[in-house]
Amino acid sequence: MKSKIGRSLWIGSLICLLPIAFGLICYNKLPDSMVIHLDYRGKPNGNAPKEFIIFVFPILMMLLNIIINISVAKAAVKGNAAKPLIGIGKWIVPIATVMIQPLIILRSINSQSPVNLIISIMVGLIFILSGNYFPKNRVNPIVGMKFPWLFNDEEGWRKTHKLSSYLWIIAGFILMIAPFIEIPFIIIFIVLISLIGVIPIVYSLCFYIRRKSNHINNSESSLK
């Protein structure tokens, strides 16, 4: 198990650094300041030096990959988290790095590159894949909807993840079609946050409170 974890960690970290080579190849074609963020209309609203994009960004992503791999490895050892979700956790950062950094570079060379579209589709697919495996995810403190009141409530955890599965898949499809529809970003953002965060929290908390209330009532009845 440790050798597999170590192998994926090293391979993933090396993949995170691969875009540096692409950046060096394109170095002379790049402006000194590069666009790193676009608003929902695809207009630039954030810049950074090209050295940051080429060198610092991949290194930061490599460090993030190490942190995430160590975290999901703990869940893998305990054997509770769904294996596909662990796999997504291990490889999400390397895959994102080899896509995002080249896209930023290509956007700087050709301003018509569909960066927003590609990133939205990529993130949407990750949401759909993650949501698909949520029902198989057992209680653990690393992967999934990690609400404290669910750690000792297996039924609540299962029901919350079943609901979240549908919500994350819906959110994924919304992300994939968002670049094609004329809806203000703030509305899309509120809908997504509600789907992946607010609704699962409210649902799981209501379920927990109802279960606790029923337990108290049953205890009082047994004492009478």
UniProtKB/TrEMBL annotation:
The keyword Cell membrane does not apply. Keywords: Membrane, Transmembrane, Transmembrane helix. Pfam families: DUF1648, SdpI. It comes from the Bacteria. GO terms for biological process: response to toxic substance. The keyword Isomerase does not apply. Residues 14-62 form the DUF1648 domain. The chain crosses the membrane at residues 52-73, 85-105, 117-135, 163-181, 187-209. This is DUF1648 domain-containing protein.
